[in-house]
Amino acid sequence: NFPWQANNVTLLFKNGATLKTIAEEGSVEFTNCRFVDAVMNFQGECSISLENCDWKGDYDPVKNITALNSNQSEITIRDCYFSTKNARAIKNCNTLNIERSHFLLCGNHEMHGGAIAHLYGERKIENCTFDRCFGGYGGAIFAMDSYGISNCEFISCESRSLKEDGAQDIAVIAIRNTENNILDSCVFRHTSVSVGNSISGRGRYIASNCNFIKGSLYFHLSDNHVFGGKSKFDGGRVIEKYFDIDEEGIEELLMTE
């Protein structure tokens, strides 16, 4: 076990280095840190927190890199900036809390979730901005289940794997619709959302108080979704469309990346 902390330091990674931390308990904390070309892989059930950090990198696009990767840890990020060119910024399979953070030009066209891939656990993504991020499915965010995104802004994000479907402009993809109000008080500028099949009931709310500016909302055509109140579309629309996404294959891939 090796929990650790870093404050007011620059962590510069060279020659494609990866830092692996194994910690079954305790916390790994970063405050006022600067990361350059960093790749960090956490194993174990420790908690990870970043506050007032700056994470920038220009990565090898053929290596399919996730800059901050954990399958078991609880991750909390506040007031941070990420620009991970050719790499996904964050992947997590446990509780994920991200507040007041900015993601710019994050992503790899072969990886799902340009800025964030989140599989399981509680989620709160709040007051964040995603600008020109891109991935295979989910230019900004890829999630297996839909919940916990509020007061965020998405700008010109792209799902490159949906180009042939004419839906390359999708920022957020949620495979399953499990809760009401997936999106609350979010803004989509020149980018869209796709929400999949409802689980354990129909008629769930998808979005409330959202503003779509030249962006659309796609939903699974066999379900009776309710779109929520006070959402506005300016140059966008609601579209019934099913995307043939290999749910089980992607879930397995994300667990092993």
Attribute tags:
single chain; ten-stranded parallel beta sheet; 257 residues; globular; mainly beta; 1 helix
Using the CA coordinates, give the radius of gyration.
17 Å
Gross morphology is globular
Taking all residues together, what is the mean pLDDT?
88
With strands numbered from the N-terminus, the spatial order across the biggest sheet is 2-5-8-11-14-17-21-25-28-30
Cα(first) to Cα(last) distance is 22 Å
Strand tally: 31
Unreliable residue stretches: none
The main pleated sheet reads as: 10 strands, parallel
SS element count, helices:
1
Secondary structure class reads: mainly beta
Please explain how this structure is put together.
By secondary structure, this protein is mostly beta strands. It is 4% helix and 46% strand. It has a ten-stranded parallel beta sheet with strand order 2-5-8-11-14-17-21-25-28-30, with no helix packed on it. A ten-stranded parallel beta sheet has the order 3-6-9-12-15-19-23-26-29-31, with helices on one face. The longest helix has 10 residues, at 247-256. The chain is globular and about 50 Å long. The model has no long low-confidence stretch (mean pLDDT 88).
